[in-house]
Structures are given as C-alpha cells and as structure tokens.
Amino acid sequence: MGTIRLTMAQALLKFLDQQYVSFDGEETKFVTGVMGIFGHGNVTGIGEALERSAGSLSFIQGKNEQGMAHAATAYAKQNNRRQIYACTTSIGPGALNMVTAAGTATVNRIPLLLLPGDNFASRQPDPVLQQLEAEHDYTISATDCFKPVSKFWDRIVRPEQLMSSVTNAMRVLTDPAETGTVTLALPQDVQAEAYDYPAAFFEKQVHYIERKQPSVSALQRAIDLIASKRRPLIIAGGGVKYAEATAILTNFAEKFGIPVAETQAGKGSLHWQHPLYVGAIGVTGALAANRLAKEADLIIGIGTRYSDFTTSSKWAFHPDAAFLNLNVNRMDSSKLGGAALDGDARATLELLSSGLANLEYAASYGASEITDLTREWNAEVDRLYSLEREDGFAQTRALGIINESLPAEAVIVCAAGSLPGDLHRLWRTEQPHGYHMEYGFSCMGYEVSGAFGVALAEPDRPVYAVTGDGSYLMLHSELITSLQEGRKITVLLFDNHGYQCIHNLQRSNGSDGFGNEFRYRDAATGHYSGDTLPIDFAAHARSLGAASYRASNSEELRLALKAAANETRTTVVVIDVLAGTNTDGYDSWWNVGVPEVSASAKVTSAHQAMSKKLTEARPY
C-alpha cells in the first residue's frame, strides 16, 4: 500500500476535498471550502496548507470568527445540509469566538465543521501566547469549551490520529439524525508535523444519506392511531424541508383533509394560499393554527423539535390530545409522551398515505371550518400589513410593504428580536427555501452573517437580512465579506432604538421597563431615561463600502426597496419603526420566570397570572 508524506494540516485538507454525499442518487461534493481568520495558532499550519495545497477547496477570509461560522451554518442550512464550509481559527480568543456559533448549529441540527487551533501538544513553549492554563488539569485548553455544544469533539495530538478522527467527524456531519457541530481541535505544532499517510485515505469517499423507514410494527401503530382520530393537526418542522418532503406533505394533507401548521424552521412547507394551510403555530402563531391546536385530538409532528415556542410551553394543545412524532432523531420523536415514528419525512409519509388510503380514512372537519378560520386570519394579516399610524411607522406596515415588494424567489434571513414573531405570523411564503429563520438558538447577530452564507449557497437569488438595530450592532462584520466576495445581500435594518422585544416582554410581566432601550443615561436619575441615541446606521453602512437608504414611511420604503434592488453591491436599508408595533397574543402563551416576591405589586400580579396558566399546561 502506497503512502503520501504530508503534514497533518495538508492531509486534513486533502481528505476533506475528496468527501461527497449521495442523496436520492444525486452526488454532491460535501466540503466546498474553508472560512478562516489566521493567527499564530493556525497561519503556519493549516494556513500554509490552504495557500499551497488546498486542492479544489476555496478559501474565504472571515472578519469575525462567530460571524464566519454563522455564515457557514447558513450555507449548510440553505443547501439542505448537504454542503458545508469548514472554519479555521487561531487558539484562545479566536477559537472561543466560535462557541456561540457552535451552539447555534448544534441546536438547529446543522452540520458545522470547526477547526480551532490549540496549544502546543509538545508543551515546549508553555504557556504560549493566548494559552489558557488550568492549574487543576493541565490537559484543559480553551477548546474544551466546545464540548457541550458539539455533537463530536476531538483533539488531534499526533498526526496519525487524524485518520480515525475525521472518519468520525464525517459520520456525524452527514447523519441527518445526529448532525450538528463537529469540533476538531488542532494543536499548532501538530498541524505542521508530517506523517506517511496511506494513499487510500485520500481516495474519493461517498457518504450515502439513506431515507430511513420505520419498522413495520411502528408504522402500523401510527396508521391505527391516525385512523382512530377525527381532528388531527399536522405541525410541519424543518425536517420536512430537509427531507424534500413538501410535495408529499401537500398531497398527504389534501388526500386526508388534514390542516397543516408550521414551525419557524418548517415555514414554507405549504404555499400560504393552500386551503389546508393554517399558518404559524405556538407563541408566535396565527389565530387559525392556535385555535385548531386547542381542539385537535391528534398532533402529527413532522420533523419538529417541539420547542417551547412551537408548543406554547406545552399549553397549546387539548389535555387529551395524542401525539404522533415523525422524526429521524429519536430524541425528538420521543417528546411529549407521543408515539415515536422514526424515519425520513418523505419516505414515511408515503407509507402512511398508502396505509390510510386502504382504510379510506378522512379527517372530520366541518365543511367550511378551516376555510372560515384561514379567511379570518388572512383578514387580520391584511389589517396589520396596511396599518398606518399618525405617531410613527408601524413595524407590521413595513413588513407588509416588504412582503409585497420582494420577488417570489427572494430569500429572507432572520433570527432574533420581535421580527421573527411577526415574520412567523404574517409573512406570506411562496417557496420552501424563501424563508430562512434561525430560531433554535435565536442568536442575535446571525442575520447579516447568515444572509452572506445564503448568498454563497444561492448566488442567483436575491437575499435579504431582516434584522433589528440590536442584532446589527452585535454582529455585522460579514457585511464586509459580502462586499469583498461580490455576493450582494440587502440588509433591512429595523431601527426601534433598543432591544424592544425584551422591553415588551418585561413590561408585560410587571416591569416599568429597564435596561433595554438605547437612551442616554439621565444625570439626575442615573437611569437610561434620556433621549434616544442618534445612531446613523446608514452612514455607518456607507463607511464600510455598502450602499444605504433610509425610510420612515410607506412611500419612502417602497422607493428605498426599489433603489436597493437596482444596486449591484451590498445595500443597507434603515427603516425607522415605532417601538411596540409588533404583534402579540393570538391565543398563545409563553412560560417565563416571573418573580414570586417583588417590591412591585404589578410583578407579583403577573406571577399569579403566570402560575394560573401553568396549571393549564402539560407537565412534560
């Protein structure tokens, strides 16, 4: 057996360059390239390998380690988890900057390969620059922080360890049930050490992603369960889109007359005008879906994690409702005490459809019940989308103009603040991958970075980051990378002068408002109660090289969107909106910890109301 002498870093890249996935007979190169920011912990190791022997792997220069890792996550998400960028950093702070992004990818079940530099394995120069020294355990380094947020973690302290390590890495990255962040910590000296690797290690490898099917007995139990119920409701999660099951879901719903609600990740599974589409469900849900959930005798969750926002903290459903959970991930299929149906969404829906058809099953909703509910909800969306106020520009009005102005093929990217709630409830989605929401971690700062990642994945589609001023301030560095790479994104920056989503939450639970608005500190009171900070986001965007526009009313926004569409480079549209004009309610509830004891009677009253609601929710 022949060998090839390479450094560990060179061997790593050569191996990654030969990894492919096959899904439904279609073969795709799995690793597109590497995003990176160089420091002493990786520049002479993997940096040299990228410069001299990257093969067909491309390199993208990041501007913030968390930001580039978010971009890599968005790239993988938009590609249905079948293509990735790896991310390389130096040791210490550069590495730790990716921990938040690692958590984001893992929670959302998105493959993310992180290659942080690490301390010298030889320990000769200890403590090296940026090294963390743990006096009680000398084997600990900064990269140990990735362990809780990684689905697979390893530290490669000898060059030959690479072979078993990356084999396990690929196992996790390409597994629809177990995917998430994979962290391979690379000591900076080992990156540069050579080894005679077997030539076979670098041959093309295809990872086959199979459509897992449930057992015959589990399938029959699921068919029997559905057949015994009259008012089932489907909750479509992200697994529907990853399995490319939107068409079969539509057919299944039509065949048996079952309404479909959607999670944030599943939004777009059905066209918004489909007669069985009842909208978003849960805390940020639509009235139609939430009312049906309260009366459903069976919840069929397809590819959903059942987060608290989906279940309204387990308050959304009838106390006697049964659950059928179709998911490739056993943890998710076992939730809410439901019947687990472990399998790929598309393959399993086809089997369920055949079995139910043999029984001539049909749901028993009233002739116009679903139509009446959706008509009522669509009228409410129309009202909110057209809401003009004399005291300022309503957020829902701005979203209505954007929704009607953007082309059907556009992709919107969002993650945090009050905008995800409004978008989940109101946005009218026509294409499955036109709505890209990171709401597993709801990570502030994902929006701009994520939009860049989406633009890399789908360069022929217009991409819009929908973000608040708080998220933009936290992280916008990859806006520069989008300019550098010539991948235009349009940032729709809603400026409401603070973290207004949380401001609304605290006030709804007894607070007078504290610490969430961007205001000057008042010298007399010592509080942030002065004038709002006059931040010129449009000027800031221009200083980075982007085009920018500003809008504070309907007509200005229409003109700004038209002008932005005609720009050839990344553009920021700053939209001045009135705080507190987001949506809320619609037969939903969210369990948050409200103090049982407080100097404020409003707070203790809110606690009592929260405690009463809790008695109406499922305990597990």
Model description:
The protein has 620 residues and is α/β, with parallel strands linked by helices. The chain is built from 24 helices and 23 strands. The strands form five sheets. Strands 5-4-6-7-9-8 form a six-stranded parallel beta sheet, sandwiched between helices. The chain has a six-stranded parallel beta sheet with strand order 14-13-12-15-16-17, with helices on both faces.
β content, as a range? 15-25%
Structural class by helix and strand composition: alpha/beta
Instruction: Count the E strands.
Output: 23
* Oligomerization status of the protein chains: single chain
Low-confidence segments: none
Shape, per Cα inertia axes? globular
The end-to-end span amounts to: 56 Å
Radius of gyration: 25 Å
How do the strands of the widest beta sheet line up side by side? 5-4-6-7-9-8
Task: Let me know the average pLDDT.
Answer: 97
Biggest β-sheet description = 6 strands, parallel
Number of helical elements = 24
Helix content: 25-40%
Summarize, please.
The chain has 620 residues and is of the alpha/beta class. It has 24 helices and 23 strands.
Key descriptive features of the protein:
620 residues; alpha/beta; 6-stranded parallel sheet; 36% helix; 18% strand; globular
Topology:
Elements: E1 3-7, H1 8-16, E2 19-23, E3 26-29, E4 31-36, H2 46-52, E5 58-61, H3 65-78, E6 84-89, H4 93-96, H5 99-107, E7 112-118, E8 152-155, H6 162-173, E9 181-187, H7 188-191, E10 194-198, E11 205-208, H8 216-227, E12 232-236, H9 238-242, H10 246-256, E13 260-262, E14 277-280, H11 287-295, E15 298-302, H12 308-311, E16 322-327, H13 330-333, E17 339-342, H14 345-358, H15 369-385, H16 395-405, E18 411-414, H17 419-426, E19 435-437, H18 446-457, E20 463-468, H19 469-474, H20 478-485, E21 490-495, H21 500-507, H22 537-543, E22 547-551, H23 554-566, E23 571-576, H24 601-614
Parallel strand pairs: 2-11, 4-5, 4-6, 6-7, 7-9, 8-9, 12-13, 12-15, 13-14, 15-16, 16-17, 18-19, 18-20, 20-21, 21-23, 22-23
Antiparallel strand pairs: 1-10, 2-3
